[in-house]
Amino acid sequence: MNINEFAEKMMGLYPRIASAISQYESDYLSQGKITLPQFWALDYLYANGASAMTTLARFFKTSKAATTGLTDRLIIQGLILRKKDNSDRRLVKIELTSKGRSIIETIRKHKHKHLVRLFKNISARDRKEYLRILEQVVKLVSETKS
Fold first, then answer.
1. How does pLDDT run across 20-47, given as a tens digit for each residue?
2. What is the pTM of this model?
3. With contact defined as beta carbons under 8 Å apart, do 103 and 25 qualify?
4. Which of 17, 24, 65, 136 would bridge 114 by S-S if both were Cys, CB 3.0 to 4.6 A apart?
5. Can you state the angle between helices 3-22 and 98-119, rounded to 10 degrees?
6. Residue pLDDT, tens place only, 69-87
7. Residue 141 bridge partners (DSSP)
8. How far apart are CA 141 and CA 121, in angstroms?
Protein backbone atom coordinates (compact mmCIF):
# COMPACT_ATOMS: atom_id res chain seq x y z
CA MET A 1 0.00 0.00 0.00
CA ASN A 2 1.49 3.35 -0.99
CA ILE A 3 1.33 6.46 1.22
CA ASN A 4 -1.66 7.97 -0.64
CA GLU A 5 -3.69 4.77 -0.29
CA PHE A 6 -2.73 4.67 3.38
CA ALA A 7 -3.89 8.29 3.86
CA GLU A 8 -7.24 7.55 2.18
CA LYS A 9 -7.76 4.50 4.38
CA MET A 10 -6.88 6.50 7.53
CA MET A 11 -9.29 9.31 6.56
CA GLY A 12 -12.06 6.73 6.36
CA LEU A 13 -11.18 5.11 9.68
CA TYR A 14 -10.73 8.22 11.86
CA PRO A 15 -14.41 9.29 11.92
CA ARG A 16 -15.56 5.73 12.62
CA ILE A 17 -13.11 5.32 15.50
CA ALA A 18 -13.98 8.73 16.98
CA SER A 19 -17.69 7.98 16.73
CA ALA A 20 -17.31 4.58 18.40
CA ILE A 21 -15.22 5.98 21.23
CA SER A 22 -17.55 8.93 21.86
CA GLN A 23 -20.45 6.52 22.47
CA TYR A 24 -18.73 5.38 25.65
CA GLU A 25 -17.51 8.71 26.97
CA SER A 26 -18.97 10.17 30.11
CA ASP A 27 -21.86 12.62 29.98
CA TYR A 28 -19.54 15.59 30.46
CA LEU A 29 -18.03 15.21 27.00
CA SER A 30 -20.75 13.41 25.06
CA GLN A 31 -23.49 15.82 26.16
CA GLY A 32 -21.38 18.92 25.63
CA LYS A 33 -21.03 19.91 29.28
CA ILE A 34 -17.36 20.50 28.55
CA THR A 35 -15.59 20.76 25.21
CA LEU A 36 -12.67 18.62 24.10
CA PRO A 37 -10.15 21.48 24.58
CA GLN A 38 -11.58 22.03 28.08
CA PHE A 39 -11.12 18.32 28.78
CA TRP A 40 -7.51 18.54 27.57
CA ALA A 41 -6.87 21.48 29.91
CA LEU A 42 -8.42 19.65 32.86
CA ASP A 43 -6.51 16.48 32.02
CA TYR A 44 -3.24 18.45 31.75
CA LEU A 45 -3.82 20.01 35.18
CA TYR A 46 -4.77 16.62 36.60
CA ALA A 47 -1.52 15.07 35.34
CA ASN A 48 0.80 18.03 36.01
CA GLY A 49 -0.73 19.89 38.93
CA ALA A 50 -1.11 23.65 39.24
CA SER A 51 0.43 25.37 36.23
CA ALA A 52 1.19 28.88 35.04
CA MET A 53 -0.97 30.23 32.22
CA THR A 54 2.10 30.44 29.95
CA THR A 55 2.81 26.74 30.55
CA LEU A 56 -0.75 25.84 29.59
CA ALA A 57 -0.56 28.07 26.49
CA ARG A 58 2.70 26.37 25.49
CA PHE A 59 1.07 22.95 25.91
CA PHE A 60 -1.82 23.99 23.64
CA LYS A 61 0.60 25.75 21.27
CA THR A 62 -1.66 28.79 21.34
CA SER A 63 -1.62 32.37 22.61
CA LYS A 64 -1.94 33.27 26.25
CA ALA A 65 -5.12 35.23 25.35
CA ALA A 66 -6.77 32.15 23.78
CA THR A 67 -5.79 30.05 26.79
CA THR A 68 -7.20 32.72 29.11
CA GLY A 69 -10.56 32.49 27.30
CA LEU A 70 -10.58 28.72 27.72
CA THR A 71 -9.67 28.90 31.41
CA ASP A 72 -12.20 31.69 32.07
CA ARG A 73 -14.99 29.36 30.94
CA LEU A 74 -13.68 26.60 33.23
CA ILE A 75 -13.52 29.05 36.15
CA ILE A 76 -17.15 30.07 35.54
CA GLN A 77 -18.11 26.38 35.66
CA GLY A 78 -16.24 25.99 38.95
CA LEU A 79 -13.80 23.42 37.53
CA ILE A 80 -10.55 25.36 38.00
CA LEU A 81 -9.39 28.40 39.91
CA ARG A 82 -6.67 31.02 39.63
CA LYS A 83 -4.25 31.23 42.52
CA LYS A 84 -1.33 33.56 43.21
CA ASP A 85 2.01 31.77 43.45
CA ASN A 86 3.39 31.91 47.01
CA SER A 87 6.98 32.33 45.83
CA ASP A 88 6.20 35.05 43.25
CA ARG A 89 3.01 37.06 43.78
CA ARG A 90 3.11 38.27 40.15
CA LEU A 91 2.71 34.70 38.93
CA VAL A 92 -0.80 33.28 38.66
CA LYS A 93 -1.29 29.54 38.57
CA ILE A 94 -4.31 27.57 37.43
CA GLU A 95 -5.39 24.51 39.39
CA LEU A 96 -8.27 22.07 39.53
CA THR A 97 -11.07 22.50 42.04
CA SER A 98 -12.45 19.40 43.74
CA LYS A 99 -15.35 19.51 41.24
CA GLY A 100 -12.88 19.67 38.33
CA ARG A 101 -10.84 16.79 39.78
CA SER A 102 -14.00 14.71 40.24
CA ILE A 103 -15.11 15.31 36.65
CA ILE A 104 -11.72 14.46 35.16
CA GLU A 105 -11.51 11.29 37.27
CA THR A 106 -14.97 10.25 36.06
CA ILE A 107 -14.04 10.87 32.42
CA ARG A 108 -10.73 9.03 32.78
CA LYS A 109 -12.50 6.08 34.44
CA HIS A 110 -15.01 5.87 31.56
CA LYS A 111 -12.24 6.11 28.95
CA HIS A 112 -10.18 3.42 30.71
CA LYS A 113 -13.15 1.05 30.91
CA HIS A 114 -13.94 1.59 27.23
CA LEU A 115 -10.33 1.09 26.11
CA VAL A 116 -10.12 -2.18 28.05
CA ARG A 117 -13.35 -3.34 26.42
CA LEU A 118 -12.17 -2.20 22.99
CA PHE A 119 -8.70 -3.77 23.09
CA LYS A 120 -9.21 -6.89 25.22
CA ASN A 121 -9.67 -9.12 22.17
CA ILE A 122 -6.52 -7.85 20.47
CA SER A 123 -3.33 -9.73 21.27
CA ALA A 124 -0.83 -8.24 23.71
CA ARG A 125 1.74 -8.20 20.90
CA ASP A 126 -0.56 -6.20 18.60
CA ARG A 127 -1.48 -3.79 21.42
CA LYS A 128 2.21 -3.21 22.12
CA GLU A 129 2.88 -2.58 18.42
CA TYR A 130 -0.12 -0.23 18.21
CA LEU A 131 1.22 1.80 21.15
CA ARG A 132 4.69 1.90 19.62
CA ILE A 133 3.28 3.33 16.40
CA LEU A 134 1.04 5.83 18.22
CA GLU A 135 4.00 7.04 20.30
CA GLN A 136 6.01 7.47 17.10
CA VAL A 137 3.15 9.48 15.53
CA VAL A 138 2.86 11.66 18.65
CA LYS A 139 6.60 12.33 18.51
CA LEU A 140 6.41 13.27 14.82
CA VAL A 141 3.42 15.55 15.39
CA SER A 142 5.17 17.24 18.32
CA GLU A 143 8.30 17.84 16.26
CA THR A 144 6.25 19.21 13.36
CA LYS A 145 4.38 21.70 15.58
CA SER A 146 7.55 23.01 17.23
1. 776 666 566 767 788 888 988 999 999 9
2. 0.79
3. no
4. 24
5. 120
6. 999 999 999 999 998 877 7
7. none
8. 29
Whether the Cβ atoms of residue 86 and residue 105 lie closer than 8 Å to each other: no
Rounded Cα–Cα distance for residues 85 and 3 (Å): 49
Residue 71's identity, in one-letter code, is T
Q: Taking every pair of C-alpha atoms in the chain, what is the biggest distance, in angstroms?
A: 57
- Domains of the chain, first to last: 25-111 (1.10.10.10)
Own/partner contacts of 94-101, CB < 8 Å, gap of 24 or more, are: 94/45, 94/50, 94/51, 94/52, 94/53, 94/56, 95/45, 95/49, 95/50, 95/51, 96/42, 96/45, 96/46, 100/42, 100/45, 100/74, 101/46
